[in-house]
Structures are given as C-alpha cells and as structure tokens.
Amino acid sequence: MAESTPETHVIDFRAAEQLLAARDPRGAVKLLDSVVAAHPENTAARLLRARAFFASAQLRAAELEFQLVLEREPDNAFAHFALARTYERAARPDQAVRHFRLAAALDPKPEYLEAARFESDGA
Fold first, then answer.
1. Residue 54: closest CA among 96, 15, 14
2. Share of the chain above pLDDT 70, in %
3. CA distances from 61 to 2, 10, 28, 51, 84 (A)
4. In the 3-class helix/strand/coil scheme, how is the chain assigned residue by residue?
5. pLDDT of 23-80, one tens digit each?
6. What are the CA-CA distances from residue 53 to residues 38, 90, 112, 123 (Å)?
C-alpha cells in the first residue's frame, strides 16, 4: 500500500466526494477512514463521512459523526438538518424535530423550515 501523505488525503477526499455522488457510499467511507484517521480534526472529512454513513444506512455511525461535527461547529445548520434526518430515519421523531428546528433557526432555508414544522403542536 502506498504511503499516506497530505496529498493522498486530498485525493482520497475528492474521490470520496465523487463516490458519494455516484451512489457508492461504502466506497466513500473506506477512503475517508484513512483521511479522518490522519486528520481527526478535519470537520469537512467528518461531515462527508457522516453523509456517506447515512447514505449507506449506517445510522448509528452517521449519528455519532454528525454529533462530533456539531460539537466543533454548533452553528452548522446542515449538520443539524442531516442529524435530524438520521434521527427521523431511526424512528426517533422527538430528537429529529429538535435538530430540524435548530437547522431552521440557524438558516431559514425553505426545506429546513418545512421540516421544522414550527406551526404544528406538540413538539
């Protein structure tokens, strides 16, 4: 196996983006594992890996990765929205609504506002 360098990590990150876009999330996770191992502080790599976990239905891994991103970037509206989608898919609606609402409060995009269901009672 070739030696890992910062350059190979950038190449792996870009290739992982392409694999995720091509609907190969497991391939993306494999590439990102080495990037995250070498650069655990790299939030972009962690966010991409979280998206790949979600796309491959590895919901617990996605949840943990999105939570880690949010510990570092609590104002990341996309990470809140994606974590909410993860909770929604895992049949945890109360947690999902909380993060949908945080996403909408941070960035009032129409899809975030719709998912937040501010007008509904009960949450």
1. 96
2. 93
3. 27, 23, 14, 10, 14
4. CCCCCHHHHHHHHHHHHHHHHCCCHHHHHHHHHHHHHHCCCCHHHHHHHHHHHHHCCCHHHHHHHHHHHHHHCCCCHHHHHHHHHHHHHCCCHHHHHHHHHHHHHHCCCHHHHHHHCCCCCCC
5. 999 999 999 999 999 999 999 999 999 999 999 999 999 999 999 999 999 999 999 9
6. 19, 13, 21, 27
Query: Which residue type is seen at 72?
Result: R
Helices 43-55/6-21 angle, 10° precision: 30
Hey, how many other C-beta atoms are within 10 angstroms of the C-beta on 68? Answer: 18
Q: Give the domain ranges of the chain.
A: 1-61, 74-123
pLDDT, mean of residues 104-109: 97
Tokens of 5: 């360098």
Tokens 């190979």 found at: 8
Average pLDDT, the chain: 94
Q: How high is the pLDDT of residue 13?
A: 97
